[in-house]
Amino acid sequence: MKRHKYRQETEAVRGGIDLSKKNGPLSTPIYQTSTFEVTDSEQQVRATSTDRFYSRYGNPTNSVAEAAMAELEGTERALLFDSGMSAITTSVLALVKAGDHIVAQRDIYGGATKFFTQWLPKLGVETTLVDTTEYEQHERAIRPNTRLLYLESPTNPTVRIVDLKKAAGLAKQHGITTLIDSTFATPINQRPAEFGIDLVMHSGTKYLAGHSDLMSGVVAGRGDLIQQIHATRTTLGGNMDPHAAWLLLRGIKTLAVRVQRQNENALRVARFLGGQRTVRRVNYPFLEGHPQRALAIEQMSGGGGMVSFEVDGSGQDACHVSESLHLFTLAPSLGGVDSLVSIPVLTSHAMISLDERKKMGVTEQLVRLSVGIESADDLIADLEQALRVVKAAPQHAEVG
């Protein structure tokens, strides 16, 4: 872990930028070019390992965004990708080979589950799925050929919390690399490297970009591991376009203020939902009564902008609620300034079998909210009118 010189709010705005006094552009220039000119063949060879050779290898605009993310996460280096899934698949493929074994949480993003269970076996890599908070189960699953422990916290869409110290300690005890999807948390709310996690992944499409207008992935971590992943990224070709990298960098500058507002709004929304008779269960880590609230507060500075809840009714009732909302736009994805709603069994976890979804706690009645930066009062009023479509017996919602 690298020492932080500034707080998260300052790093988000100024991270990755040369702060020395100089005459030059305040905004990072966009190097909208696929290749770079050299004066002679010797320089061509020297340029190969730099960001001024060919933009599939690297680009000066991308380098600034990568430096900003490394500074935010407190890691040695970071890499950009053209999507979150590209970041996951490229990193995993860089770290394992045929005959290796992976231990992964069961309740993670559906696309990652599909990659681990349907694609990696074709390459001779086996994955054991374990319950998120059962660390004895994690340890029992480790084999001599286990190379990677894959984590996600908070989890999608049930918003469970992983004990990062415990997971990192277990992995180090067995000489295993740890990779966490920290998309829901953002580096404003959580910095996994501080707890001993080796690699931190974000779908930059979400909170980092913040405006639902670009695709991006980021992995930050130890220099030797990032170099290994960089070599694989160069081969697979999942680098990010420099203009998209510039948009990502612009989004990162407002990350702290957006996340602070989303933290506040989401907690208010979760508290409101907890008092509704038509809501069976509310999932939000900072909500009073959540079984992992103490751990969440210990590891995170805010609960994040994601809330999920189960409607006390049928899957059709859940769909009716999502369709009756006005300020929560019915759309997949998350993390932007606009509030979104989705039904995980139809979107993020549609590719997962019914049996696996049950083990993950992803039911037909589950509704996922990505809470934006609008007025919390207006968002709550929108939810209140939408929930009227459900008629259920009076009861208190469960938490967590």
Summarize, please:
The chain has 400 residues and is an alpha/beta fold.
Defining key terms:
400 residues, alpha/beta, 7-stranded mixed β-sheet, 6-stranded mixed β-sheet, 15 helices, 13 strands
What is the straight-line distance between the termini?
31 Å
Name the overall outline: globular
Specify Rg, calculated over alpha carbons: 21 Å
Strand content: 5-15%
Q: What does this 3D model show about the protein?
A:
Helix 3 packs parallel to helix 10, helix 4 crosses helix 9 and helix 11 runs parallel beside helix 15. Helix 7 (164-173) links the parallel strand 4 (146-152) and strand 5. The protein has a seven-stranded mixed beta sheet with strand order 1-7-6-5-4-2-3, with helices on both faces. A six-stranded mixed beta sheet has the order 10-11-12-9-8-13, covered by helices on one side. It is of the alpha/beta class. 38% of the residues lie in helices and 15% in strands. The longest helix has 20 residues, at 255-274. It contains 15 helices and 13 strands. It is globular and about 75 Å long.
Secondary structure: elements and pairs:
Elements: H1 8-14, H2 41-47, H3 60-73, E1 77-81, H4 84-95, E2 101-105, H5 110-119, E3 126-130, H6 135-141, E4 146-152, H7 164-173, E5 177-181, H8 186-189, E6 199-202, E7 217-221, H9 223-236, H10 242-253, H11 255-274, E8 279-283, H12 293-299, E9 306-311, H13 315-324, E10 329-330, E11 340-342, H14 354-360, E12 366-370, H15 376-386, E13 398-399
Parallel strand pairs: 2-3, 2-4, 4-5, 5-6, 8-13, 10-11
Antiparallel strand pairs: 1-7, 6-7, 8-9, 9-12, 11-12
